[in-house]
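Record minuted for everyone:
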Amino acid sequence: MKKKLIASVLIAATVLSATACGGNSDSTETGDSAQAGTGSSLFTGELEENVTIQVLENDTAISEGYFQELIDAFNEEYKDKGIQAVDANMDQYLDLANDGPYGYGPDVLYQANDIIMKYAQGKHILPLPVEEFDWYDQVPKSAWSAYETTVDGTTYTCGVPVNVQAPMLYYRKDLLPEDWESTWDENQDQIPDMVQTWSSLYEFSKARHSEDANTYGYMKSLNDMYFSSGFLFSYGAYIFGDNNTDPSDIGFAAGEAEKGAYVLSQLASAMNEDCIDDTITTNAYSKLGNGTYFATISTPDVYSTFLGELEKEYEEEGLSAEEAAKKAEENLVMTTLPMLPDSGDLTDESAELIQSVTMGGVNGYAISSYTKAPNACLEFVKFATSYEMVTLRAKMLGIAPAREDAAEEVGGTSALIYENLDAGNIILMPSISEVSQIWTPGQTFFIDLAKDVYRADSEKKYTDLESMKAGLTDMCQQIHEAITTLQ
């Protein structure tokens, strides 16, 4: 019986894959190629009724209660048709490529663009009729492009953008020195210097730790390739050539990327050895909350988690829940990253300042090729990406909406992220499978760079810009070998 079930699933999957994202050259013989480009040929049937849709959502959205509100609202809207969305109750990093063909996997999944597009190349997700969405023009082309793939001259859109991800600086306003306006606001613009330039943040971090060995200024694990690579991009590095579509051209050592590595090395020297591994990534919420750390960087969608930790701290200090919530909102600040010295030397007071460039991504929804209810799934995606639901998601989780109208409604950092995206200061993760090979070699280099700060002088490997350039070049070679092996 089990074998028959698997066989029937595989047959259904084969039929769906003919028009799944990734394209099929045979489709040109039937004249369906143009329709398949937008996915409309798959969604012309009647809406399936009395079906249950399994949705794989972001862990934060689940833990903060947003996902429950979303499915409750959707289920109420579609109860007359018997359509119900439920939590897929699966790990958010489920491997659809291996599990989907055997009937194990969600109908709808929410992931970053690089993860979703990895599935597109294997035809595990469906092309979507996104131009039919009444808010299609509210999302910038760059966000849609993150979910596009072209096969045999036909462009397929395989995901629907929900929010833009980019590193943001989080800091505690109430941990600023009492005299910061006279000692840490050189240009008298009412904004602390240490959140405007990395040089000032480096100086402040050393000063704060010097005054109290149990406290630190800026803290972040260097082994996180997503966050650390931005320092390389700021000085001319890139991921892949030809607008991130040519994995034969690996650019992490390009330009003056070694200056970015030097900045990271200096910042590590003002931290502790926790910056070598995941320790800071894991404890940043609680350590920022209890005042051990002044600042860190993370993505906008975890704002609510930082806020919750700070509220907890204030309540432990004796405030009521309402007072703690109000005080936390006043003192937790999320803003764009500070500017960098063009020399890469954080002690160079004469250096010109340059804009920080970051790695970023676009999170959104996709529909599994193995679903038995594609039309119902599409209705869920439309509902989940509506103005009302995206705005609610932003207010509950702190995300930066991909929809312009929702971003304007939310305001604040959403507008800043849009400006950086338009200015090219956010490098979106490539939407090709080869991007999966950058993480391990990149992490290995950044771990080694962080360790170097704590090695004896006679054992240091990265003593100058030249040696850092060599380390980055070796990292690129390792990525190249990993991609070649994969192919």
In short: The chain is about 45% helix and 15% strand.
